[in-house]
Design a protein that fits this description.
alpha/beta, TIM Barrel, 6-stranded parallel beta sheet, two-stranded antiparallel ribbon, 11 helices, 13% strand
Length: 373
């Protein structure tokens, strides 16, 4: 697949009410698995048609088969149990959510899990997603997979101790499962593989809040880069585009952390072996474009300039000016544009309508055509 993709997207899309109702019925035991799959297939077909109308260059299944962006992996694993909860019923540990809708986000955090035994596979992470897209997509398609490092939270020092001596041992088992999954996706001919690697934002957050100095985060960053590069190395294959997405949290139009990429940029951008970095830049919370000076020649930066947290459309001329600003650090020919994140990192989605979502994707296409032709 050519890397000249100017109008990109992160992946998740707003679930239609009928699909959410089908999932609730399935969870209640009132709908068989075959009927849920049929509802998913129908909804994904409609999502493909919507994306085709906008002209977006890369299609997704909207992550419609997942309850949250990372749960395609979690739901496929054996050896897990629900995580302990606090007095409000929230999973421990829980990320704090911020912004106008932070309280709503806090009340609707998806269930987390911990390893209580050796992890294994009940079924493949994303193979069913990829098979459907290969059969029905009308443009090149992508499969999104969370970085294994996102699942260090599966380790609980008490509940996981019988199976794992420490989190690194669990992570090693998980990476092995990832490598098998990627081989299966290659065999199917998936043209674009995206690793969603958000653990870097925890370092950004810690530096921003003064909990650590940027210089003291090197060991943590080395571990994250090493884990991502093991997976990305397996993704590398002729004709396959590899992307890494980094944002600051996205749930119910709320955000998790704030801060510039500066504290992680040298290692993240300089050492992570990907073709494309999909980076959040829709608000001043993400800082300026200066960290892009660490992007090596030949790599593409997809500027996440269009917000998915609101249905209010951005001014196309403003977006073009922002692309010009970024081009001071990365050549224009190695830039692209996308929304800053998905529209529904969790199945309840951000607080905008499907029509607003459609207009946002169309805006990405409009700006890309004006800038790159």
């Amino acid at each position: 697949m050519s890397d000249i993709i100017r109008a990109d997207q992160v992946g998740s899309l707003l679930r239609p009410p009928a699909l959410l109702a089908a999932r609730r019925a399935f969870e209640a035991g009132a709908l068989p698995a075959e009927a849920l799959r049929a509802a998913e297939d129908a909804a994904i077909g409609e999502a493909i048609a919507l994306q085709a109308e906008t002209g977006i260059q890369v299609q997704s299944d909207g992550e419609f088969r997942r309850s949250a962006w990372g749960n395609g992996v979690v739901d496929s694993l054996s050896g897990l149990a629900p995580a302990p909860v606090d007095e409000r019923g929230a999973s421990i540990p829980a990320r704090r959510w911020h912004g106008e809708h932070g309280d709503l986000a806090q009340e609707t955090v998806p269930q987390h899990y911990v390893a209580t035994g050796k992890i294994g596979l009940k079924h493949r992470f994303a193979l069913d997603e990829a098979r459907f897209l290969k059969a029905h997509a009308t443009a090149p398609f992508k499969i999104t997979i969370p970085s294994p490092s996102m699942f260090l939270r599966l380790y609980n020092s008490t509940l996981s101790a019988a199976a794992y001596a420490g989190p690194d041992e669990l992570l090693s088992d998980l990476v092995d499962l990832y490598l098998e999954e990627i081989d299966a996706l290659h065999a199917l001919g998936v043209p674009y593989l995206q690793l969603d690697s958000l653990r870097y934002i925890d370092t950004i957050d810690a530096v921003e809040k003064g909990r650590i100095r940027a210089a003291d985060a090197r060991g943590t960053l080395e571990r994250l880069v090493e884990t991502d590069n093991r997976v990305l190395a397996r993704m590398k294959q002729p004709g396959v585009t590899r992307g890494v997405h980094i944002c600051r949290g996205n749930h119910r139009s709320s955000w998790g952390v704030a801060g510039s990429y500066e504290s992680v940029a040298e290692m993240l951008l300089g050492q992570v072996d990907t073709d494309r970095f999909l980076m959040e830049f829709d608000t001043e919370r993400a800082g300026g474009f200066e960290p892009l000076r660490f992007v090596p020649p030949g790599k593409t930066v997809v500027l996440g300039l269009v917000t998915t947290k609101s249905g209010v459309p951005e001014d196309p001329d403003h977006l073009r000016r922002r692309i010009d600003e970024a081009a001071k650090y990365v050549p224009l020919d190695h830039l692209a544009i996308s929304p800053q994140c998905g529209f529904a990192s969790t199945e309840l989605g951000n607080l905008l309508t499907v029509e607003e979502e459609k207009r946002k994707l169309a805006l990405v296409v409009e700006v890309a055509r004006k800038v790159w032709g």
